[in-house]
Amino acid sequence: MTSTTPHTHDVCAVGNAIVDVLSPCDDAFLSAQGLTPGSMSLIDEAQGAALYDAMAAGIEASGGSAGNTVAGVGSFGGRAAYIGKVAPDVLGGVFSHDIRAAGVHFDTPELVGGAGTGRCLINVTGDGQRTMCTFLGAANQLDASDIDTDLIAASAIVYLEGYLFDPAPARAAFEAAAAAAHASGRKVAITLSDTFVVARWRAELLAFIEASADIVLANEAELGALFETEDFDAAAAKLASMVEVAAVTRGPEGSVVISGDDRVAVAAYPVAKVVDTTGAGDQYAAGFLLGLARGLTLEQSARLGSLAASEVIAHWGPRPMVSLADLAREHGLTL
Q: I need a labelling partner for 31 at 20 to 30 A (CA). Which of 16, 127, 158, 331 fits?
């Protein structure tokens, strides 16, 4: 059932509230630190401190996959909201300021007396590939009591990041958000987030998708991992048979979107130089989900996603550095 009640937010995201620390590195550094290139791994506070000390000088930027997405929605001029947990510390203040400055509604209660705000240590090689080590901290203390059901009910699409399958309390929040969305006739979107997430929780992800997801976003590697195959077309068709809309990004080859009998392939926007791929999938999701929330076609929505992804990979950091609304107008895309 789809709600006919007008929504006050286009997208409400539930995710790990993280501050990113990005630094340049080479393959030798990754090897010395025992890191798998292109991976995302969870670390504890002590491991985070040791890795941070070893990293080259870099930049700090508010991140978190779903947080990046709603910041992109805001940059497009969309109405976005976010549910995520930070601590009342310096990094928590940075995250809260940044997401609100992006025009995103954010009022999840802070975690008092517990772990510090989560941070993701991202080492980026010369080809733009990122290797991420994440200390979740306060982020994984998000639980079902933090889910604002009124906010969910007022949002056209509720967007859930797959990383929430890792900590048990946050997974409960994930399930609560999906239930609240469907109780209000709203759409539930999920991103698979990472091949390592898929490997850890493949059965659970498949069960959740079948039972609760309307829209799934993934990249080609995550899709293959979900169905344990290298046959892209077969995996895409299988995913599309399970949900209303399946959107799969393929890097420089663009993206493929399938809904029922409709299949749309959209090319990637050209980029003069790929600087940092952090946030590419997050920004694709921003444009794509906002397009769907505003009633655009699959192709129009995918073009918005591709445009946002092209902007973010041309600079350091996971969030737009220019107005995506202005960029869309320059390319003849309207919302």
A: 16
